[in-house]
Specification:
The protein is of the alpha+beta class. Among the domains are: 92 residues; 132 residues, Apoptosis, Tumor Necrosis Factor Receptor Associated Protein 2, Chain A (Sandwich). It is 44% helix and 19% strand. It contains 8 helices and 16 strands. Strands 8, 9, 10, 11, 14 and 15 form a 6-stranded mixed beta sheet that branches. A 4-stranded antiparallel beta sheet has the order 7-16-12-13, with no helix packed on it. A two-stranded antiparallel sheet has the order 1-2. A hairpin with an 8-residue loop joins strand 3 and strand 4. It starts with a helix and ends with a strand. Bound molecules: zinc ion (4 copies). The site of one zinc ion (ZN) has 7 residues, from loops.
Length: 390
């Protein structure tokens, strides 16, 4: 606007023409330039205004979007706060439950401790009572506690077992009659009894004692070596060491033969040929420790045949858990691929197997068969043991 008013002023004549002309010329040309610049500027301004409007509109849109986002975030925040409050309530409820449980647990611990104390006291009372009762029914002569009736009583109430009963009471020397004590029988039927085997310290009720005596690890058994060489009766728990160290029917004791007792199977042996022996020959046997069990391999020769058998130091029931293979063969045929191999596969024999029964169990080989196997007056024997999963 200022440029236009300047242009209108320049049309008035000026005395200093030249100067004015120059000035007018200059002003004219400036006025013309100023006009176009003004238009340009106006266009430019409009453009800028349009741009600014567009930007403004864009910003407005952005603002709306941001506002919506803000609203949505606020909603999220509110819902999170609600959730947080819910969790807080839940946590408080859990804390209360936990406190209740703690109280309950403390009550249970206290009750359990009280029960333990009571139980210990009852056990003590029971043991004291059982000890006193046992003392009273123990026979004063043989010191056995009878395991069955009748139990005889003297007029003064002293007991004596049936096998020690005599004319006079062993305690007070009073005359014994045939009076029996029902009370003593009730006592012996209800107290724990000591296992009668030496070494064993088990104390069991009467019903369990009978079963225990059949499988007590300390029950007395005949050494499994041929009775002609040993024949000793010893606690089962000591048989293994007996054969290792002192049994006359043991090969383990000879030279370094116990080296074969290394827990590895199959085992190969070389025995002197039975053909070169007398009519009846009772060879020493080998004892083995394997799988926490002990086994004895015996080799006996009789008129016309020889027998190899393996005994487990356990019951018939325990024998069912094992499979035994015994074979005789030439000493140069440990692979057992040649002729005349004789094999037996079956269960081991229980330690209490009678010697006569043992001599008809296991691998029985005819004398003529043995002669065919013999090399340098020796025969080979292979033994294998396997545990069978039940
Ligand atoms: Zn007695
Ligand atoms: Zn008496
Ligand atoms: Zn026992
Ligand atoms: Zn022995």
């Amino acid at each position: 606007m200022t440029t236009r008013s300047k242009s209108r002023q320049s049309s008035v004549p000026d005395p200093d023409h030249k100067h004015n002309e120059q000035a007018a010329g200059i002003e004219h040309s400036e006025s013309s330039d100023n006009g176009s610049i003004g238009v340009d500027k106006e266009i430019e301004d409009k453009k800028q205004i349009r741009n600014l409007k567009r930007k403004l509109s864009f910003i407005e849109n952005e603002k709306d979007v941001i506002k919506k986002s803000c609203d949505s975030l606020q909603e999220d925040k509110n819902s999170l706060n609600n959730y947080l409050n819910f969790i807080k309530k839940d946590r408080n409820a859990i804390k209360k439950d936990r406190d209740f449980i703690r109280e309950d647990r403390n009550t249970i611990i206290s009750s359990r401790n009280a029960v333990k104390v009571e139980l210990a006291s009852l056990q003590h009372k029971y043991r004291t009572l059982a000890y006193k009762l046992r003392e009273h029914v123990e026979c004063p002569v043989c010191f056995d506690v009878p395991t069955s009736g009748p139990v005889y009583a003297c007029p003064n109430g002293h007991f004596v077992c049936p096998k020690c009963k005599d004319q006079l009471c062993p305690t007070c020397r009073g005359k014994m009659s045939n009076g029996k004590s029902l009370l003593a029988v009730t006592v012996i039927e209800n107290i724990d009894h000591e296992c009668s085997n030496d070494v064993c310290e088990e104390m069991l009720p009467l019903a369990e004692l009978k079963l225990h005596l059949q499988c007590c690890p300390h029950r007395s058994v005949l050494c499994p070596a041929p009775a002609e060489l040993c024949g000793r009766k010893i606690p089962l728990s000591k048989v293994y060491n007996h054969i290792l160290k002192e049994c006359a029917g043991s090969y383990n004791r000879v030279g370094n033969n116990n080296a074969k007792n290394n827990g590895r199977f199959p085992k190969h042996f070389r025995y002197p040929s039975p053909a070169s022996m007398g009519l009846n020959a009772y060879l020493k046997g080998y004892v083995f420790s394997w799988n926490k069990e002990h086994f004895y391999l015996s080799f006996e020769k009789f008129l016309g045949y020889a027998v190899l058998s393996l005994q487990l130091f356990g019951s018939a029931e325990e024998c069912k858990e094992y499979e035994v293979s015994i074979a005789v063969h030439r000493i140069d045929d440990e692979e057992m691929k040649g002729k005349h191999v004789q094999k037996f596969t079956g269960e081991p024999l229980p330690v209490e197997t009678d010697q006569k029964a043992r001599r008809h169990n296991g691998l029985l080989v005819g004398a003529m068969q043995l002669e065919k196997i013999e090399v340098d007056r020796k025969i080979g024997v292979t033994l294998d043991i396997k545990k069978i999963p039940l």
